[in-house]
Amino acid sequence: MPCDLIAALDIGGTKIAGALVDGNGTPVVRARRATPAREDGATVMREVAAVLREMTATEDWARVAAVGIGSAGPVDASVGTVSPVNIPGWRDFPLVAGVREITGELPVTLVGDGVAMTAAEHWQGAARGRTGALCMVVSTGVGGGLVLGGRVHPGPTGNAGHIGHISVDLDGDPCPCGSRGCVERIASGPNIARRALDGGWRPGPDGDTTAEAVAVAARAGDPVAQGSFARAAQALAAGIAATAALVEIEIAVVGGGVAGAGEVLFAPLRRALRSYATLSYVQRLEVVPAQMGTDAGLVGAAAVAAQERGLDRFRAPRPEGRGLLRESR
């Protein structure tokens, strides 16, 4: 039987999703559990184990060549641990070791969820065929990943490209990460909503105070709602431009729930980017919406594991050369 599937996990603060992904990026088996994010680490791991066991019980498991994990971070792929900000019970938690207890001798690759999303967009989405890209998830937090030289570049610990914690306001509000004025502190969904409420915006009769509701108000012409999105767009533009100046990316792909606001976000983002991306070699930088949707984490986790194993059918065409991804130890 051919080993032509990758087992993928996408672990976040609300869900633990699993899938067996084929060479076309299609999940052929799925499993899912809610994340008990406020429980202790062992309880969270039991839900991860339940997802894995649901997949190992299928006939298709015999076709699995490797396991890929995309997790909320920070992660440390060099030692196989995770410390997600939104899962307090996991601090330096040995996730890879726990997964190996269930999956046996299969190779396991761990990256942050932003890197996984980047791998998906580069394999089959908006960054396909690009040699330099920044892919971002703008949602409850702001994460990201890099494509350099035509290959996903997670860095030694699996966190490279984490644009959410670039400081774009030196005297800005404290960020939970310990720094100040981070992109995430300004551009994440909860902070867009917080800023709109602080500025005098009030929700409709349904009482919805999410960034999605702020986006609806912005589309309807509410100046406070529009201003909150413009401020978020400015922070994103500053972070994207700084990244482009540093590593010469050619495209920035923006996904996540906040990106669902559409032109409410992208129009001011493109305008702001013209003010920040001024050097000659970054002026042609494109900013586009992500294409991979809710399966990006799973498809990307499969892609990074497959790239590590040299399984070319799981990858978009790229320049010749050795991959930059590496297996967690």
TrEMBL record:
<comment type="similarity">
    <text>Belongs to the ROK (NagC/XylR) family.</text>
</comment>
<protein>
    <submittedName>
        <fullName>ROK family protein</fullName>
    </submittedName>
</protein>
<dbReference type="InterPro" id="IPR043129">
    <property type="entry name" value="ATPase_NBD"/>
</dbReference>
<dbReference type="Pfam" id="PF00480">
    <property type="entry name" value="ROK"/>
</dbReference>
<dbReference type="InterPro" id="IPR049874">
    <property type="entry name" value="ROK_cs"/>
</dbReference>
<dbReference type="InterPro" id="IPR000600">
    <property type="entry name" value="ROK"/>
</dbReference>
